[in-house]
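Q: Predict the assembly, please.
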Amino acid sequence: MKQQSKKMFDPSTIPDDYCPIATDFFDMQVGDWRAKRPVVLRSKCVKCGTCWAFCPTQCIIEKPKWFEANLKICKGCGICAQECPNHAITMVEEQEE
Amino acid sequence: MPKTIVCDGNEAAAWGACLAKPDMVSVYPITPQSSLAEHLTEFIAEGKLSADLMDVEGEHSVLSVLQGACLAGARTFTATCGQGLAFMFEPYFRTPNLRLPIVMAIVTRDGITPQTVWGGQQDAMTVKEAGWIQMYAETNQEILDTIIMAYRVAEHPDVMLPVNVCFDGTYLSYGIEAVSVPDQEVIDEFLGEKNVNWHVALDPERPMAVDPLTGGGSGKGTSMFVRYRKGHCKAMQRALEVIEEVHTEYGEKVGRFYGPLIEEYRMEDADYAIMTIGSMTGAGREAVDIARGEGKRVGLLKVKTFRPFPVEAIHRSLAKVKALGVVDRSVNYGWGTGPLYQEVLAATYFLEQRIPVISFIGGLSGSDLTVENHFRKVVEVTERACQGEVSRQTIWLNEDDDKGEG
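A: Predicted assembly structure:
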């Protein structure tokens, strides 16, 4: 889901050369600049939650039998793959769509 | 009725802040500012000042919490100096660009190293390009009055910039004088209703992102960056007018008038002048009086507003004289002169008639600038420059203090 471009505050009442403020949502997601994506091998995942605890962007979401990253938010840092005690996560190169 | 108290500069500053009724105060003690922090906390404890006091672990947090407070609509006050100001530099550097009208006293202290806890304006001069308005006080009375006026300048809708009220550590911070404390009602009326976050706010009713990334290689971002820089410069220039207006209005209400940008002393028929900044001006005035008694046509220019630099006012004053001696209480390492001297020198470029300007540096690390041992020399050397004997050497006034006399 792309964030809608919606005004938060009408800035037209104040000078535009005072303090920098932003009143439009920016529709870029942090996931947009990921170079590698984490891929969870479901057969190995024991749902221990280590990836969930370590993820700096808190993008790990819970599925019925495994955890995986929300790729809109995941920056591909690879910390989850590094920390997974069962080696259930591998980092895979992103391809041009 | 205004009451007269006897106090040092730090207490005078605390009284000025108290009368301006800030909503939030945060201070971290550092010599020679510490008793200012103590007076403020005492005023709050006694109920004289109804402000939230933020007790934080250092100057970086001091200014950071005040930024938050200001963004939420509070009038704010703090004070620091020297190494404390150095530690505060990161939030200090961004306060003016956020256009937050915070008022902060700098109880000026010389730069370390060598280790020093004494007065000198090296700290304030070092941060002169960060975009704050900087005014220097000569007396304890002027400290109190200028802190109050600083809020009017800072919060003026055309300005919206933070203001430093600088005053000499040791000399003024600990020097005791009689000070008249104006009535609260008069100051309330003078300051009016505060409105500090109409342009940028942390406010759920007006959601906005404060200070997003602006710039980049080209296009919209870079133009926006330039627009903010130009807006800041425009506000600084407008501040020169506002500072004058505010001084006039304060004088009319309270009865005390100061030269808002440059104050002239005995300049009417002067052939040459000396220029001072801060508390040394007292000795400078006396030296001028003595020289006048000896028939010398010398005047004095006191710089009150250093940032923005009052080029036009300096031009008006310098058009009257044929030579100028500038006394700095700090060092410009890049030029081996005083920083005020360097600014004045740049301003003289636009004068119709180029005049000789001499750089004097004195009063470093708490050293006295006396009438007899130091200002007499300033007058004499400037007089010789007026007669054509121009020295391009910086003159260090306290260099020979160890040779007796003092």
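Chain B has 13 helices and 16 strands. The mean pLDDT of chain B is 96.
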